[in-house]
Amino acid sequence: MAASSSSILLLLAATFTVSASAATFTIKNNCGFTVWPAATPVGGGTQLNPGGTWTINVPAGTSSGRVWGRTGCSFNGNSGSCQTGDCGGALACTLSGKPPMTLAEFTIGGSQDFYDISVIDGFNIGMAFSCSTGVGLVCRDSSCPDAYHQPNDMKTHACGGNSNYQVTFCP
After folding, report:
1. Which domain covers residue 156, as residue numbers?
2. In the Cβ-directed half-sphere of 151, how many Cα atoms lie within 13 Å?
3. β pairing state of 103-107 and 65-70
4. Domain for residue 149, yes or no?
5. Is residue 72 part of a domain?
6. What is the pLDDT confidence band of residue 110, given thresholds at 50, 70 and 90?
7. Can you tell me whether residue 133 is helix, strand or coil?
8. Binning pLDDT at 50, 70 and 90, where does residue 137 land?
9. Is residue 1 a part of any domain in this protein?
10. Cα-Cα end-to-end distance for the chain
11. What is the CATH number of the domain that holds 80?
C-alpha cells in the first residue's frame, strides 16, 4: 500500500510540475549596436551587445507581459537612462518603459498562450516575435502590418501553452 501511495504522489507531483512550467523566451540582438532589452513583469533587463542573446523563463499564469528594446542607454551599475524605452532609469525594469517603444506582448496561460507586437506606444526598433507553434510576426518600421496600431486592432495570435518564444531585434 505504501508503494502505491508513493507512486500516486510522484505522479501528482510530476503532473503539477508540467502544468506549472515556464515558457522560455530567447531574446537576440541582430542590430549593429547595443540594445538593452527589458521584460515585465518578469525578466528585468540587461545589456545585449550585437549578436548576443538573453534567455528568460516566464511562469505559466503570467498575463500582460512585455518585452521591448531600449536604445541609447548609459548605465552606471543598475541605474542610468535610455533615449527610448527608459523605465525610470533602472537597468532591471519593474515598470513599463517610456515611449517610443516597439513591444512584444504576451500572456502565458495553461493550455494556450497569446502574443502580439504593438506599436501603439510608438516604434523605436525593428522586432520579430514568434513562438514554437505559431505564426512569426515581423515589424521593421512603424507601419508594419503585423503590429497593433490602435487598441481595437485584431492582431493577437494563439500559441500552444508554455511554448518557446523568440524575440529578435533588427530582424
Report:
1. 22-169
2. 0
3. antiparallel
4. yes
5. yes
6. confident
7. coil
8. very high
9. no
10. 58
11. 2.60.110.10
Residues, the chain, total?
A: 171
Pairing outcome for strands 103-107 and 112-118:
antiparallel
Residue 36 lies in a domain: yes
Tell me how many domains the chain contains: 1
DSSP per position, 22-57: EEEEEEEE-SSS-BEEEEETTTEE--B-TT-EEEEE
Q: What is the pLDDT of residues 115-134, one digit of tens each?
A: 999 999 999 999 999 998 87
Mean pLDDT, residues 85-104: 95
C-alpha cell at 34: 547595443
| pTM attached to this predicted model | 0.85
Q: Is the peptide bond before 100 cis (omega within 30 degrees of 0)?
A: yes
CA dihedral (49, 113, 98, 145) positive or negative: positive
